Automatic annotation (TrEMBL):
Signal peptide: none annotated. This is Cobinamide adenolsyltransferase. It comes from Mycolicibacterium phlei DSM 43239 = CCUG 21000. CDD domains: CobA_ACA. Keywords: Transferase. GO terms for molecular function: ATP binding; corrinoid adenosyltransferase activity.
């Protein structure tokens, strides 16, 4: 795509403006580091444009507070108090989805994942947000907790111009085929390979 120009122009009857404004389904997968980080970078751009941001984390424990969560919560406050950027919501399965007001449990992760996906489906139908990050969502799909075909159907038929970014290893092929943008993070080297622990400011 030299100089930002597509190699071919699709014969879809749409104008350049219509194609530019089409909603994007993105998947960040692969064994390398940076899948979630890249998704949150996209969310930061969206926030700057005034988009309504919603993050759903499907695997990380309630005790694990990533740096992006703290930053986006502050950005949400900045919007609420000064009208800068867009609103932000951050939901974590490990702490008990915030709309249920129930404490997280180690008992049934599968049921919690289904509950999260059901809420996302509802919000997509209502066009509640402009930009969704479904962080580590590939794992409930890989483990069979959530039906892949249903997810693909909901995402490809979502109304409006809602952007969705999904992260996690081993994205199912059906999701990859349905996505508009797929990036595979490939590990070349990692400090942990030589026994170094995760570092503040790098991993969290």
């Amino acid at each position: 795509m030299p100089q930002g120009r597509p190699l071919t122009i699709p014969d879809d009857g749409l104008t350049t403006r219509a194609r530019r404004n089409a909603p994007v389904l993105a998947v960040h997968t692969g064994p390398g580091k940076g899948k979630s980080t890249a998704a949150f970078g996209m969310a930061l751009r969206a926030w700057n444009q005034g988009f309504d941001i919603a993050v759903f984390q499907f695997v990380k424990s309630a005790k694990w507070r990533v740096g992006e969560e703290a930053a986006f919560r502050e950005l949400g406050k900045l919007h609420d108090e000064h009208g800068v950027g867009g609103p932000v919501q951050w939901h974590k399965m490990g702490s008990g989805w915030s709309w249920t007001r129930k404490q997280g449990s180690e008992d049934d992760h599968a049921a919690a994942a289904v509950e999260g996906w059901t809420e996302i489906t509802r919000r997509l139908a209502e066009q509640r947000h402009d930009f969704y990050v479904l962080d580590e969502f590939t794992y409930p799909l890989k483990w069979g907790w959530i039906d892949v075909d249903e997810v693909v159907s909901v995402l490809t038929s979502r109304p409006g111009t809602q952007h969705v970014v999904i992260t996690g290893r081993d994205a199912p092929q059906a999701l990859i085929d349905a996505a508009d943008l797929v990036t595979e993070m490939t590990k070349v080297k990692h400090p942990m390979d030589v026994g170094r622990k995760g570092q503040k400011g790098i991993e969290w």
